[in-house]
Amino acid sequence: MVDQRTGTPRDRTALVVTETAHGAPELEAALAAESFSTRRADPAAVFGVDGAWAERGWGPPDLVLASAALGVNRVALIARRLTTAERGPTVVVFPEDDFEALQSCVRAGFDYVVPPFLPALLRCRLTSCWERGQLTMAVQEMAAEASLRQYERDLSVAHEIQAGFLPEELPVRRGWELATRFLPARQVAGDFYDAFELVNGRRVGFVVADVCDKGVGAALFMALIRTLLRHTAEHTAAWNLLDADEDTVLDTAARTSAVPSPVLSVGAGPLLQAVLGTNRYMARNHLRQGYFATMFFGVLDPASGSVVYINGGHNPPVLLRADGSHQLLAPTGPAVGMMPNSVYSLGHTTLEPGDRLFVYTDGVVEARDSRGSMFGLPRVLDALGTPATASAEDLLVSVESGMHHHVGGAEQFDDITMLALVRTPPEATAVA
Amino acid sequence: MAFDVTTHAEDGVLTVRLTGELDSRAAHRFNEVIGAVPGGTVNRLVLHLAELVYLSSAGLRCLVFAQQKLGRGTEIVLVGTRPEVAETITMTGFDRSVTMQDPVDS
Fold first, then answer.
1. Which A residues, 86 through 145, put their C-beta within 8 Å of a C-beta on chain B?
2. Domains in chain B, please, with CATH?
3. How close is the nearest chain A Cα to the Cα of B58, in Å?
4. Which ipTM did the prediction report?
5. pLDDT (tens digit, 9 = 90+) per residue, A220-268?
6. With an 8 Å Cβ cutoff, are A214 and B27 in contact?
7. Could you tell me the CA-to-CA distances from A256 to A276, A308, A348, A397 in Å, in that order?
8. What is the dihedral of CA A295, A299, A300, A304, to 10 degrees?
9. Could B91 and A210 be called an inter-chain contact, meaning their C-beta atoms sit closer than 8 Å?
10. How do residues A336-373 score in pLDDT, each as one tens digit?
11. What domains are defined for chain A?
């Protein structure tokens, strides 16, 4: 036998496993003649107590010669016990007296040697057994690698397709900045963001959403939910409010500013229809699969700074006022797709010059350091406490660096998505 | 903190005690427990959550899945939910589908 890596002969070890007290003298003599360093063990020593084998300082042997008299089950157990993650020994059965037992081991796929055990004959047989073992292993490795490559190809295709479900560019409005981050934990994510024009460009819709769970399942639902939301919002007339379900109650309790009812705001119709329609569709068609999405969907009037929104069970976005105070935009309804007949209220607020809105997914606040401690909302608020002149991009960079600082070298576990909307202060607008 | 789930079924009441963190890594273990329940045999699911310290969105999905699997007729009771876990349940509106109890009421 030859070392696979170096191609040079090395010290070969053989293990003879038998219950017979005197062992298999002819076989052991032939192995010795072929300069195998040979050990003998009874089966209990091999699959007795875990680790007993290693405690004796015995590495895994190159070759195992198991007596067929042990029976096929015990031979299989021995083979499994002596197989490490890196390699397994070549296992060959030999008959003591019972050729029937040998036959059942051979039927189970084990290689065999039969007496007389003459050194040259034995060497020839063992070499061919070893080569066959190597070939089988190589074929198995190739098959595993091929299926892994196929899997990786599929995932990278899914990754590219998912990227196509995010907006290619963000709408731009004078006096406003919009910036986003999308950091999936894996190749594909359940998070998404979106931003698009509504009502002939008079409004800008923006969404941050988190489909529960992650990976491929969440990614499929991300594609569905993003499409339903955007398609419905884009194809609902501005004032179309009243064909909502009868059991849908609209109230304005979530209002955070004393302006005319948000229900009367242009853009409220598309917003409500998109969220209600998506919830209805999910509840009707996908309830059993148990997927739902938390989301914040805002509709901005760039002229006035007015924002009507629905927060469907999502982490409350942070509204930072130019004077340094902040407020949280709490949920106005449950997660979308979680229950049929969910009721959603419209929230309303106004961004004045210098005000900034930060919308994020739970991957931000739940980012953990190596000890498991979460980044948390207070640290997010700290990171957002940058000077009021900071751009939307600056805000995201600040949160990102705060998060990286907190997490240290720990692996990112959850998808992370962030969106910052900033109404630029008057002086900045004048400069621009 | 490692996740653990123990169950006890009696007279149509399935009692489940969750310990540790219920997230995407632990989700399958809870789902297996719920998946093993024969249809129509449980009319009340009591979840003891006093030792559940974290519930991610994937974990919450387990509870939603349990509700779907057991059917609308099954009452779900959450007992002794910690504030940080209750926050996730309330924020997403799932509290509207379940009954939340203090430990003393159970």
1. none
2. 4-105 (3.30.750.24)
3. 4
4. 0.86
5. 999 999 999 999 999 887 655 544 443 344 444 444 444 445 556 788 9
6. no
7. 22, 10, 6, 28
8. -130
9. no
10. 999 988 999 999 999 999 999 999 999 999 999 988 88
11. 12-142 (3.40.50.2300), 164-431 (3.60.40.10)
